[in-house]
Amino acid sequence: MTEFFQSLGLTYEWAWSLATLSGVLLIALPLMLAVAMIIYVDRKVWAAINLRRGPNVVGPFGLLQSFADGLKVFLQETIIPSAANKGIFILAPIVTFTVALAAWAVIPFDAGVVLADINVGLLYILAISSLSVYGVVMSGWASNSKYPFFSAMRAAAQMISYEVSIGFILVCVVLYAGSFNLTEIVNSQRGHGFGIVNGYYFNLLLFPIWVVFFISCLAETQRVPFDLTEAESELVAGYQTEYSSMSFALFWLGEYANILLMCSLNTLLFFGGWLPPIDWAPLYVVPGIIWFLLKTFFFFFMFSWVMATVPRYRYDQLMRLGWKVFLPMSLLFVVAISGWLMITRYGGAA
Predict the structure, then answer these.
(1) 3-state helix, strand, coil in the chain (%, to 5)
(2) Which DSSP letter does residue 314 get?
(3) Same domain (yes/no): 144, 236
(4) How confident is the chain (350 residues) per 10-residue block, as mean pLDDT?
(5) Is the domain of 49 the same as that of 110?
(6) CA atoms of 108 and 71, how far apart (whole Å)
(7) Residues near 179 by Cβ (< 8 Å), separated by ≥ 6?
(8) Does one domain contain both 220 and 151?
């Protein structure tokens, strides 16, 4: 895109700046639209599983319900508790929203369709996603209320616990792909299953790791059954209790942007990204971005399905699953996969 702007007579510096800004807008604006639509899809899936109708009044089939809700919170009054730390209270939702958007900079939607195709894209995502805990902790502490504060303590323990397992799972994927670059990781999955299947999910060593990764994504994004930070029955609404208006909306936008990010990571790391499920020439006629979006939507449907059917864990069960089950499993698979690769790929060489 930089070359396009240079062809219009701009200097390299201006062309690069405009190209970068255009790339950011091409990702951020559709992402915000996608967040509005997946909230609608989320509610429709819950309604269908509970034998209800869901949103069906505002717009055709209720499609404009999310936009109506957004307009409502935009017009509401912003209320800041008198005892709150006002600076941090206002900054917390901004941090959550900004961090959620920043992670998308290295997500490849198709071959070459990525804002920043850096060599350490996976490390970048791990680093950026780990910052999302700060928005929750800041909001809980700044609210000066016991329920948000309990939520902040829970969030800090929960998100850090499951990031450890996610980190070892990513090590397994990197070992197989031989790269931290997300584009290279997707390309390494081409014809992975006997030259037929595009994706690591076909691999008997990596499929259990994907199951652990998917469940860890639910915990990392505070989705049911791991929504201990927002538990309405215990903490009213957790860290969001004292928030209203656009600050509340920013939390929701950031939360759903993170959910979409985790769905896209499932697609990129284990299910072939923009590649068709089967390495068959006619399937490549479909644009890669369509395959990417379909797979991401499938994982979001699984997120909604789990939320509508699985009851919430107790906090001790949550911590036990993270530290006593997932962490030993992920460590075991790092050893197993590295040993398997040493034997099969490197011939046992030291």
Answers:
(1) 70, 0, 30
(2) P
(3) yes
(4) 72 79 83 86 89 87 86 82 83 88 90 85 88 85 83 84 90 90 91 84 88 91 81 72 83 88 94 90 90 94 89 86 92 92 72
(5) no
(6) 31
(7) 119, 185, 188
(8) yes
